[in-house]
Write a structure and sequence with these properties.
The complex is a heterodimer of chains A (about 290) and B (about 325). Chain A is mainly alpha-helical and about 290 residues long. Chain A is built from 15 helices and no strands. With about 325 residues, chain B is mainly α. Chain B has a domain of about 220 residues: MetI-like (MetI-like fold). Helices cover about 75% and strands about 0% of the residues of chain B. The two termini of chain B are about 40 Å apart. The chains are: A mainly alpha (about 290), B mainly alpha (about 325).
């Protein structure tokens, strides 16, 4: 017994050192581009030209911000606001209606229930990009380009989130509580809003984070639909940084890039634990 | 009394599904059908909405399939996808093996997971432009680093060479996704019954034996899931190649979706040809989806079969 215990105990020391070395190398690889981006956003053009790679922050952050905004092209606040409206609207629609749809599938026995769920599984993987031409033509005909609604409302039907919420509800939603609420004379819609939603809040929060981030990062559809510069989202604004206007303003470009992902940094530093757990959960459930 | 109750509740199943069904019909189903129809018409030109069907209905599809550029885009998509997916799955599996092995309890796993996953959450458009700056010519952090390390004697123009442009796009994809794949695989390993590992340990399996003979076969479904979702993501790859060099140099990073975008929203605004190309991509993805769907059904089917057999066996015991 003790012999066996010793046998499984540890791998050899050089191998452990190698493992740490590889892990640290990849950690640096993952962080370095962001570190360079942040450091260089505090340096001026001359410094970046002399040494593009440096780990010493400089003092030109505010100057870079002035250069960035003085050209009247890149408006971080406008982009931030537009992205925020779209992401928040999308997230709210997606989590509320996906939970409602999942509840309809889990809690009620209806004839087409299985057919409906099979349909959701079948369409879950269809990416929005492949139907973009028809979507663009539809929105163009009703004169809704440069309007945020065509980017927000499709989230009401989010098949993969319905799938996730169903998987979460099946083991964790006690039907007895719903039954007793019915006995007490509670209406079905109120049961959903006041009893079911508080019970599935953790899953809604996880899905909400991912939905928000995915929506914030989305480029293809906003790029097609939003042609008015006042309506640009953050990812579209990134392309403005590539223009000739900022050609030699290296520090300002790095700063602009950093600004577009600033909210994501904040979200990630606050919620990384839940985000990692959420990714893992998606893998197990999916 | 009870029957009437059950009937009246069923109504709510339909009622609560209505928002989803209506939104799906308008914003997803209709565009799919509309895209298909446009693929058979002469709809092109900025701002045009009227169209008529072509006398040869498959003309757009024929044009696309015989187009040199489309073939290049398809080839690039596949090449870039393979160049990113193979190292991605290899490193993800390596880290999974290390992080879940009871024999090498590595410290700081939580930190490594958080750091490895971080690129995945950042805006792809920003990352593409950031890498453009990192690999710029003649002065850029990458050239600076390589020259400091003595690997290069003079700056290298990464964005003119076709090969290096492709490799950088593939690298960005790898860099953004290996952490995600690793976390999915680790959660898969943690889902395996630990008794199997204990049994292997008692039988004296080495760590590599345990990994290849037990962990990998148990992870089969999850690896398949990762493979197919990555394939769908790869076929619709857009943000990175478009923002990095907009398909260039000389179409070497032109992917299917960048091709579709360029057909429909630049040049002569050929919505019809873009729609036909979309449908071809959609067909490819449809085949993958059916595959996934089968996978899920088989898994569930097996589970219910097992449960049914189990119940039947129990009943037999009770009857005896």
């Amino acid at each position: 017994m003790s012999n066996e215990m010793r046998k499984v105990k540890r791998v050899s020391r050089p191998l452990v050192v190698l493992m740490y070395a590889v892990c640290i190398f990849f950690a640096i690889l993952s962080l370095l581009p962001f570190v360079i981006m942040i450091i260089n956003s505090t340096r001026n053009t001359y410094q970046v030209q002399q040494h593009a790679l440096s780990f010493l922050p400089s003092k030109y952050l505010l100057d870079n911000l002035k250069i960035l905004t003085s050209k009247d092209i890149f408006h971080p606040l406008v982009g931030f606001l537009n992205s925020f409206i779209i992401s928040a609207g999308t997230t709210a629609c997606a989590i509320y209606f996906s939970t409602l749809t999942a509840y309809a599938i889990v809690a009620y026995q209806w004839k087409l229930r299985n057919a409906f769920f099979t349909f959701i599984l079948a369409v879950m993987m269809i990416p929005a990009q492949v139907t973009s031409i028809g979507f663009y033509q539809m929105v163009y005909r009703v004169h809704m380009t440069n309007n945020f609604l065509p980017l927000i409302l499709p989230a009401i039907a989010s098949p993969s989130m319905v799938f996730f919420m169903r998987q979460y509800m099946i083991p964790s939603l006690p039907m007895e509580i719903i039954e007793s609420a019915r006995v007490d004379g509670c209406r079905e819609f109120r049961i959903f809003n006041q009893i079911v939603i508080p019970m599935v809040k953790p899953a809604m929060a996880t899905q909400g984070i991912f939905c928000f981030v995915a929506s914030w990062n989305q480029l293809f559809l906003p790029q097609i639909l939003l042609t008015n510069k006042k309506r640009y989202t953050m990812p579209i604004m990134v392309s403005l940084l590539k223009g000739d206007i900022y050609k030699t303003e290296y520090g300002a470009v790095y700063l602009g890039l950093a600004l577009t992902v600033l909210p994501l940094f904040v979200v990630y530093f606050l919620l990384s634990k839940y985000i990692i757990a959420g990714v893992a959960l998606g893998g197990v459930k999916g | 009394m009870k029957k009437r109750n059950a009937f009246s509740y069923a109504k709510y199943g339909y009622l609560f599904s209505i928002p989803f069904i209506v939104a799906y019909a308008i914003f997803h189903l209709y565009p799919i059908l509309f895209t298909t129809i446009i693929g058979f018409t002469d709809l092109k030109g900025l701002g045009r909405t009227s169209f008529s069907f072509l006398s040869d209905p498959f003309l757009n599809f024929k044009n696309i399939l015989s187009s040199e550029l489309f073939r290049t885009a398809l080839k690039n998509t596949v090449v870039i996808w393979i160049a990113n997916f193979i190292p991605q799955i290899v490193f993800a599996l390596l880290f999974t093996a290390w992080f879940t092995s009871p024999r090498c309890k590595l410290r700081g796993q939580g930190f490594f997971k958080v750091v490895f996953y971080m690129p995945n959450i950042m805006t792809a458009a920003t990352i593409a432009v950031l890498f453009q700056a990192l690999f710029a010519y003649p002065t850029s952090p990458m050239n600076d680093l390589l020259m400091k390390l003595g690997i290069l004697s003079s700056p290298f123009n990464f964005q003119v060479s076709k090969l290096s442009a492709k490799l950088v796009v593939a690298f960005i994809q790898f860099w953004m996704w290996y952490g995600y794949t690793m976390i999915i695989l680790i959660s898969g390993v943690l889902g395996i019954n630990p008794e199997i590992f204990e049994a292997a340990e008692i039988d004296g399996c080495s760590s590599s034996q345990t990994f290849f003979r037990i962990t990998l076969p148990c992870l089969k479904t999850i690896i398949l899931y990762v493979l197919i979702t990555a394939l769908i993501g790869g076929l619709t790859m857009y943000d990175i190649p478009r923002m990095y060099l907009n398909g260039g140099p000389d179409s070497s990073t032109l992917t299917l979706n960048v091709f579709i975008y360029n057909q429909a929203f630049s040049g002569s605004y050929m919505y019809n040809r873009a729609a036909a190309a979309s449908m071809l991509v959609f067909l490819l993805i449809g085949i993958c989806s059916v595959f996934i769907f089968r996978m899920y059904r088989d898994k569930d089917q097996k589970k219910t079969d097992r449960r049914r057999r189990h119940i039947a066996a129990r009943k037999e015991v009770v009857n005896e």
